[in-house]
Amino acid sequence: MKTPRKNTHTYNVWQWLLKGKTITSMQAIDMFKCTRLAEVIHRLKNEYGMDIKSNLIKMKNHNGTLVEIAKYELITEF
To answer: Which pLDDT tens digit goes with each residue over 25-67?
Structure first.
């Protein structure tokens, strides 16, 4: 598998997902200052061949309105 360049958003998200963890856009902003998670996920899928799935989860936004956001995870085959 090709490895992303170190100290990039792509590398940070790649490492996170390889640890078996999930990530949302808010987590990416908080942890990595990455505001374009969907673009990073797209790159990981297309350039690095990662099999990543997204699930929509419901959360309340800052106004208390129920919204759906994407939660990404690496698909591992056992």
So the answer is: 999 999 999 999 999 999 999 999 999 999 999 999 999 999 9
Q: What is the DSSP letter of 64?
A: S
CB 56 within 8 A of CB 24: no
Tokens 């929509």, residue located: 56
* Nearest-5° Cα angle at 26, 41 to 72: 35
Residues 6+ apart with CB under 8 A from 77: none
pLDDT surpasses 80 at 21: yes
| The dihedral sign for the CA sequence 49, 20, 18, 70 | positive
Residue 78 predicted with pLDDT over 70: no
Q: What is the CA radius of gyration of the chain?
A: 13
